[in-house]
Specification:
Blueprint lengths: L7 H12 L5 H11 L2 H14 L10 H13 L3 E4 L18 E6 L9 E5 L5 H16 L4 E3 L5 H9 L4 E5 L12 H10 L1 E4 L11 H11 L3 E5 L6 H11 L3 E5 L9 H8 L3 E2 L3 H8 L4 H5 L17 H10 L5 E2 H8 L3 H13 L3 E4 L3 E4 L1
Parallel strand pairs: 3-4, 3-7, 4-5, 5-6, 7-8, 8-9
Antiparallel strand pairs: 1-2, 2-6, 10-12, 11-12
Helix pairs in contact: 1-3, 2-3, 3-15, 5-6, 5-11, 8-9
């Protein structure tokens, strides 16, 4: 179901805005906050980039978006716009939430307290059996299970919760199956559960796409359970993103002699909740946002930002504060003495001009 306030023209403009190469989720939000609509933001981008001292970025071609929309309709998928009633509510809380998702299946599965189950691709037989059983028992308790459709633990979790409701988050386009052996599973999730993808249809998954997928898994769920994970694995990235988003991090302990258990054991040592059963997961989630989840949901709306702008001298002073090392935006506001809205506008201009890079933790640096 689309946001009734979103016209076809505005929906098209939002897709075009987020498909423009230089526009990330944070920049997308800032543009909507400053200009109110994606249509107005698209018109303003060339002037913003020129003020930032660079050439305007090439906007996503209209013909490409028309072809994408036609293909999405043909394969039976749909768009979920940030701000729409069917957009995952917990994911919408993230500052870098995807502006647009493509989906197939039941969006209601993202309501309440979904749980992510992730882990090793080369998982042991015991871990795979436990993941399937845990997902099944959580599903029987009315909790949807999300994962990333990878081999091993992800696949086991999806199979365990397939009958009760599972959310599969795809690293590539929603019409791309990866790994190939999960073709039947992916089609079953589209029919019985929910498939989500951030990348445009037809996008083959690349290594750089998986961290983006992991943030969606962590962001659309109330907590993440890790079952077997080597140090520096993608599962630990998902756990870290969950913790940074204020979500519960849980881990299943394993033998210290098994390298696949090192990541989970380290998570527990660092404060993650030790999990041995579905009841442990349910108990861990009881305190999570009870008041927030009980409150009526209000769709995200871009609140118009203060239109304070910086003068040329102030713009030069802000650029002088930047360098190749990332610096917090709050620090730039403090050092410049300018209103936060003026600082944000200059940074937006520099980014659209290709002169600024955004980093984690609200930090920026010269490109």
């Amino acid at each position: 179901m689309a946001d009734p306030a979103l016209t076809d023209a505005e929906a098209f403009a939002r897709i075009r805005l987020c498909r423009t190469r230089s526009i990330g989720p944070v920049t997308y939000r800032q543009l909507l906050a400053r200009f109110g609509t994606a249509e107005a933001a698209l018109r303003a981008i060339p002037d913003l980039a020129r003020r930032g001292g660079g050439a305007p970025p090439p906007l996503a071609p209209v013909a490409d978006i028309e072809c994408e929309q036609a293909w999405i309709s043909r394969i039976g998928a749909r768009y979920l716009h940030l701000g729409a009633a069917d957009y995952p509510p917990l994911l919408a809380e993230l500052e870098n939430a995807p502006p647009v998702l493509t989906a197939m299946g039941d969006s209601a599965l993202t309501e309440g307290r979904p749980v992510a189950i992730v882990g090793a691709r080369n998982a042991s037989a015991a871990a795979i059996r436990f993941a399937r059983q845990l997902a099944h028992e959580l599903g029987e308790a009315g909790i949807a299970v999300a994962s990333g459709l990878a081999r091993g633990i992800d696949t086991a979790a999806h199979h365990g919760a397939l009958a009760t409701g599972t959310i599969g988050v795809i690293a590539g386009g929603i019409d791309i199956v990866y790994p190939p052996e999960n073709d039947a599973l992916q089609r079953a999730i589209a029919e019985k559960g929910l498939l989500l993808a951030e990348q445009p249809p037809g996008t083959e998954p690349r290594a750089r796409h998986f961290p983006y997928r992991n943030r969606i898994i962590a962001g659309c769920t109330a907590g993440t359970v890790v079952i077997e994970a080597a140090p520096k694995s993608g599962s630990l990235i998902t756990a870290r993103l969950a913790a940074e988003s204020g979500r519960e991090v849980m881990a299943v302990p394993g033998s210290p002699l098994d390298p696949r258990a090192q990541g989970c054991n380290k998570l527990i040592r660092d404060g993650a909740t030790l999990i041995q059963s579905a009841s442990d997961v349910i108990d861990s989630l009881r305190p999570f946002g009870a008041d927030r989840l009980a409150a009526p949901r209000a769709p995200y709306q871009a609140e118009l930002a203060d239109q304070t702008a910086a003068g040329e001298n102030e713009r030069r002073a802000l650029v002088a504060l930047l360098g190749p090392s990332p610096v917090p935006i709050d620090e730039m506001v403090r050092l410049s003495g300018l209103p936060a809205s003026a600082v944000q506008l200059v940074l937006l201009e520099l980014e659209l001009a290709g002169r600024l890079e955004r980093h984690a933790g609200g930090r920026v640096a010269l490109a």
